[in-house]
Amino acid sequence: MAKSLLIKNGIVVTMDKERSVFKGGVLVEGERIIKVGDERNIGGEGASEVIDAKGGIITPGFICSHTHLYGILLRGANLNLPAPTDFTQNLQRIWWPMDQAMNHQDAYISALTASMELMRSGTTLFADTFSGPNAIEGVLDDIKKGVDEVGIRGVLAFEATQRRSHEEGYRGVEEDVRFIKKENGDRIMGMISLHAPFTVSDELIKYAIEKAGSLKATTTIHTAEGRWDLYHSMERYGKRTFERLHDLGALGNRTVVAHAVNINEDELQIIKKTGTNVAHNPLSNMLNAVGVPAVPHMLDEGINVSLGNDGYIFDVFENLRGVFLLHKVNMLDPRKISILQALEMATINAAKAYHLEKDLGSLEVGKRADIVIIKPQLLPTPITVSSVYGHLVNSIDGDDVSDVVVNGELVLRDRVPTKVSYEQVNQKVLRMVGDYWARLKGVKEQVDVLKLGG
User: Fold this and answer.
1) CB 322 within 8 A of CB 64
2) Which of 39-48, 85-94, 314-323 has the highest mean pLDDT?
């Protein structure tokens, strides 16, 4: 008989179609939720394990729709490079040299560390893209190893680019294809990733989309993050970024575009018409000073917008506050982006972006048991059915997460990881990251981008 888990005595934030919130609990059997209800009818007598939420918050596992796990290795690193003045220089002086220094061991340790940080702050699923010319074939297995040790879910891809050679881009796509065919399990799956329109040719885009279609896989690509993407498309193809992608058949409901910052109304309507999903990364957009995407307008138009971190800040609650606040100040309108809209972007919208909404993104009977229990150690005001949304976006931090369930299994219990300890992770980090930082000091700014198209 499958093990059962009863989580009781909490404020349940379901994110179901009615966005139901009530005092109660969740009953799990095996990997699935079998009951969500109030204290009078939740049942669960004789459950294998019982967790008392003690008046805290019970939510679905949060979902990060766009990240770069290896970005965690940049924290505190001194690259001894001139400070970038715009996004293109940020790529040339930081990210591309970082890519050049990456190896398979770096991919593993960054996946392990980032997965731990995501999990302990309530994220149970993420979509990651990795880039590194010296670690292509087989690297997704190294990333999977790190994720598996923590026990959360991941959608993994190698980020194909042709800025060094045409052939390298195809190698990247083939690594994605290999991994998609190999991994079709419940927790780990693959997708196809292209870096950005300004580093890939029309031919590679078509090839990647054809492969994704044959495998029924998701495709992801950075779009119109900085203005260079727009300028490149206009100069070389006479089209704006999304016009080019649309003409190549690269958009649709199985495509997740990251950023979509520097676009116009026509492009926004292309996104809507094609059913393309948008992964919004507010903190990263602020960090890189690329601008603010028209997310409120996208939501008004019915575009599915989800929340990512782009490899910057991994605490989902900081990202929730980022999206909740950014558009208010940008539009000088405190009504823009409601608390509920922010939460939808980090739960059910993100699940829809990857066609996982039948299993994830909300607490409903029959869905996978990905559950987060939040018990703030300091409560300045009470958590109630009417105040819980406000607490989640305005006052909760990742440190308030006490328990995390993934696929019916506790991976965080009373703030302690159950599969791998913080000490074990820290020991591996100290051994390996110092070597990576030493290699970083030897890399140089990369300014040459392959001249694609014409």
Assistant:
1) no
2) 314-323
**Among 6, 15, 7, 5, CA closest to 388:** 15
Between 14 and 87, name the one with better pLDDT. Answer: 14
Return the pLDDT at 454.
Answer: 37
How many Cβ atoms sit within 10 Å of the Cβ of residue 45? Answer: 7
Residue 162 corresponds to which amino acid?
A: Q
Per DSSP, 218 falls in state -
| CA pair distance 158, 131, nearest whole angstrom | 6
- Domains assigned to the chain: 4-60+362-417 (2.30.40.10), 62-353 (3.20.20.140)
Let me know if 414 is exposed, middle or buried by CB neighbors in 10 A (0-12, 13-18, 19+): exposed
Q: Which residues contact 156 (CB under 8 A, 6 or more apart)?
A: 128, 130, 140, 143, 144, 147, 179, 183, 188, 189, 190, 191
Measuring CA to CA, how many Å separate 150 from each of 126, 232, 310, 356, 419?
13, 40, 20, 21, 6
Element spanning 451, H or E = none
Pick 407 or 432 by higher pLDDT.
407
Would you say how long the chain is, in residues?
454
Q: Are 8 and 53 a contacting pair, CB within 8 Å?
A: yes
Query: Could you give phi then psi for residue 9, rounded to 5 degrees?
Result: 60, 50
Average pLDDT of the chain, as a whole number? 94
Helix axes 104-120, 422-440, angle to 10 degrees: 140
Q: What is the Cα–Cα distance from 222 to 200, expressed in whole angstroms?
A: 11
Per-residue confidence (pLDDT) for residue 92, from 0 to 100? 85
Q: Backbone phi, then psi, for 280, in 5-degree steps?
A: -95, 135
If pLDDT is split at 50, 70 and 90, which confidence band does 447 have?
low
Amino acid letter, residue 70: Y
Residue-level pLDDT at 449: 60
Instruction: Tell me how many degrees the CA angle 394-397-400 measures, rounded to the nearest 5.
Output: 120
**Mean pLDDT score, 355-383:** 96
Alpha carbon distances (Å) from 212 to 173, 190, 194, 204, 374: 10, 10, 11, 12, 38
Rounded CA separation 177/36 (Å) = 38
Q: Which two tokens stand for residue 56?
A: 């805290």
User: Distances in Å between the alpha carbon of 28 and those of 47, 241, 280?
Assistant: 9, 45, 32
